[in-house]
Every structure is written in structure tokens, then in C-alpha cells.
Amino acid sequence: MIFNRRRFVGASTAGLFAVGFAGRARAQGNQPLDVVRIVTGFPPGGTSDTLCRRVAENLRGTTYTKSALVENKAGAGGQIAVQMMKGAPTDGSVILQTPASMLMIYPHIYKKLGYDAFADVTPVTLACTFDFGFCVGPAVPDTIKDIPAFLAWCKENPDKANYGSPASGSVPHFIGVLLGQAGGIELKHVAYRGTQPAIQDMVAGQVQAVSGPVGEFTQQVNAGKARFLGVSGEKRSRFAPNVPTFAEQGYKDLVFSEWFGFFAPGGTPPSVVQRVNMALRTALEQKDVIDGLAVMGLEATSSTPDQLAALLKESHDRWGPIVKKIGFTADS
């Protein structure tokens, strides 16, 4: 997914004022909800959970809700949380926060998915965006400084042509596959349950490289235990400004960013969606949320419901041919 943040935050001032005024007017005409539940498909302490908790803190005691709670429904790679939206109340009291992969990639890799990515959820707003990085550890010689050099080294050492990712069927997994294809070498994928376990094995020399969100590598890179070879965005990441993009290194088609979004249950009335949108966008604009996400390498970003719907459709349609080319299914 090529993500252009300006498409969402660069709307006209007049347009944003109109949306904001309408949202505030509706909010003032409704009593605050007693409790709002924000559902995430990942366990406490992770990026998704941290995002939800920071937003929940800024929703409590507002005209939208008296209280906001985070519910961790981990399992099946984030699918359980999405499935919970089927039949959930459509009054704004239940909100899903999910990475894009559950909606843009899973429909292409699972033969039987327990939800419809378009019918069972209603887009509300973007939450944040982030790029991916490709890092190597001590198992790769210090002379390897970029992606072409790494792929050449892998050709010479096929038994060491390995990389880890946070999960099979994830964007980082597919980035590694596509890099290998571009370099004419098969990189052996090692799936982990999250990026940090993969990084721990990389710095211990158990796996040569890791593909994962840029922010996940910061601590080990700063400590000199790992080094970036490239990042996936259309431009260099502000969290790793000295690292060239894949495109800069000659891989023009390998431009990927991912996003987290907030969704209401399918069938939620437009008036409710707008009210939730206004409350979430206000929360996402708070300094503690912006700064807290930046620590994790995430760019706080919001959108209108229509903009998120268009981004979801674009992301879903782009990944279909990529998954088909790779030939991966969740059963493979």
C-alpha cells in the first residue's frame, strides 16, 4: 500500500470545519454513552493495545462517553476481534481498532474467513500509519550495508538466506518474499509470534535478518546490535532518516506502508459514525497520543469515514494480485 498522508490531512480548512461543526452539533444533541468498548485483536502491552489505551484515556469524561475500556480479544492473528463486530451494537458503544492486514490481506489468504471485510465493519477513521524496515544482525558481515549487498551475500551463502517476520501472511513476510524474488534468490521465511521475538533471535545470531515495523528496531539499532538495510515507505522514515528506501535502492515496486484504523460494526447509521469519528479524531490530535505513538515509530493520522473506506478498498485491491503472485495461502 502506497500511503500519502497528505491525502487525508491536507483537506481544505473549510471542509474540515464543516465536518467538525456537524459532528459537534450531533454530539451536543446526544447524551454521553455510559461505556464505550474499544476492541483490539492483540494482547496487552503491544502496539495495538497501547494505541487503544491512549485513545481511551482521551475519550473518558467527554461529550461522547463517560467511560472507555479496552478489550483484548487476541487470537487467530487478529481475526477474533474483527468477528466480534458481527452483531455488535450499532450505537457507537463498540469500536474495533485493527491493523490493515486483517482486512486488506486476510481475505486473499484465508479460504474461509469468519467475516466480510466490507460488510461486517464500518470505517470510522484512520489511527496511524507506519513503514517497515529490513534489518540484519551479527550473523551477517559488517560489510553488508544495503539490500543489493545482502541479496548477493545470500546467493553466495544460500544456507544462511533466512529472515524472520512477526507472522506468516503479514506484510513483513511478503516484503521478504518480494525482495528475494527481485534479487533472484529464495529467502527462507521464519515466522514468529510478533516482531520482538524475531529481533531477539536476530541479535543473538539465530536468524540473519528481520522484516518488521520500523519502530520495533529502534532500541537494538541505537545499541549497535542491529542495522537497517532499507525501509519500505515512498520516502525515508523520519524514525530512520539515514536509511534509504527500497525504491532508492532499485526496487521501485516495493513501496509499502500499513495503517491502523478504527471501525464500527457493519450497518452503523451514518449519524453515529460521524459522532464516533469526531470523538476519535479529537483524541488522536492530543499531544500525549501523538508523542506516545511516535515513540513506537507510528505517525498519528486521522481521516473521514469515506477516506478510510477508499483506502481500505485500494489496499485490498492492491494486495490481491501480490498474494496471487507469491502463491501464499494460510493453509500452505
Structural summary, described in words:
The longest helix is centred in the C-terminal third of the chain and has 22 residues, at 305-326. α3 links the parallel β1 (33-40) and β2 (65-72). Helix content is 39%, strand content 20%. It has 2 domains: 6-130 and 258-326, D-Maltodextrin-Binding Protein, domain 2, CATH 3.40.190; 131-249, 3-Layer(aba) Sandwich (D-Maltodextrin-Binding Protein, domain 2), CATH 3.40.190.10. By secondary structure, the protein is α/β, with parallel strands linked by helices. It has 13 helices and 10 strands.
Give the CA-CA distance, first to last residue: 24 Å
* CATH architectural group of the largest domain: 3-Layer(aba) Sandwich
Q: Provide the CATH topology of the largest domain.
A: D-Maltodextrin-Binding Protein, domain 2
Q: CATH homologous superfamily name of the largest domain?
A: Bordetella uptake gene, domain 1
Question: Would you state the CATH class of the largest domain?
Answer: Alpha Beta
Query: How many distinct beta strands?
Result: 10
- Count of distinct structural domains: 2
Mean pLDDT, rounded to whole units? 90
Q: Fraction of residues in helices?
A: 25-40%
List keywords for this structure.
single chain; 332 residues; alpha/beta; D-Maltodextrin-Binding Protein, domain 2; 2 domains; eight-stranded mixed β-sheet; two-stranded parallel ribbon; globular
Quick structural overview:
By secondary structure, this protein is an alpha/beta fold. The protein contains 13 helices and ten strands. It has helices at residues 6-9, 13-28, 47-59, 79-83, 101-104, 106-109, 147-156, 171-182, 195-203, 218-222, 270-284, 287-295, 305-326, and strands spanning 33-40, 65-72, 94-99, 121-136, 162-165, 188-191, 209-213, 227-231, 257-265, 299-300.
